[in-house]
Amino acid sequence: MKEWLKEYKMYVILGAAALLFGVFYWLAPLENSKTQPEDKAEWSLTDLEEPQKEEVEDKTPEIILADIKGAVKTPGVYKAEEGERVIDLIEKAGGLAKDADASKVNFSMRVTDEMVIYIPKIGEEGEGFNGQSTVDTFGESTLVNINRADSSELETLPGIGPSKSAAIIEYREKNGPFKTIEDIKNISGIGEKTFEKLKDLITVH
């Protein structure tokens, strides 16, 4: 028996070593497979969190200012959020006055920054009003230069028809350019009432 052990001792040791190596080799991949999904899941959650925060911040609406005039209960400058409509601004101004001509107002128009909205009164048409909604005409608050504007530009203003636009052009040809916007009251037919509608829509520079 002792002779047999001596003869096969080396084979027994090598076999045991091979067995231990095999067990270790088989268990190592299982251990790695348990940890890898956790690392991947942790990476995925971290990766998704930041873009979501940025997306929420981008949705903050921009605050703009718009000026509403004419036949509303409380005319003035109001804050509005980007994307709001003319009807929203009218509500902020207390609603339409009793004599407002709602048929000439584009309620669905989007409000823009520095927008001037003029709500006409009933019967304000013809020579006194050009028949088009001044919400459309003055959707972008671009002032009309009464020293340079031609008749078609002048007639976009409330209260200015063909005869008054011709009178404005004739006045500046005879007397030189208007020095102040108040000088437009020198035109026959343009009094204080009409000037109140024009003063925030015209310039001499």
TrEMBL record:
Keywords tagged on the record: Membrane, Transmembrane, Transmembrane helix
One Gene Ontology term, aspect cellular component: type II protein secretion system complex
A molecular-function term among this protein's GO annotations: DNA binding
Residue ranges of the TM segments: 12-28
Chain ranges of the Helix-hairpin-helix DNA-binding motif class domain: 152-171, 182-201
InterPro entries: Competence_ComEA_HhH, Endo/Exo/Phosphatase_dom_1, Hlx-hairpin-Hlx_DNA-bd_motif, RuvA_2-like, Soluble_ligand-bd
GO biological process, one term: protein secretion by the type II secretion system
Protein name: Helix-hairpin-helix DNA-binding motif class 1 domain-containing protein
Species of origin: Bacillus methanolicus (strain MGA3 / ATCC 53907)
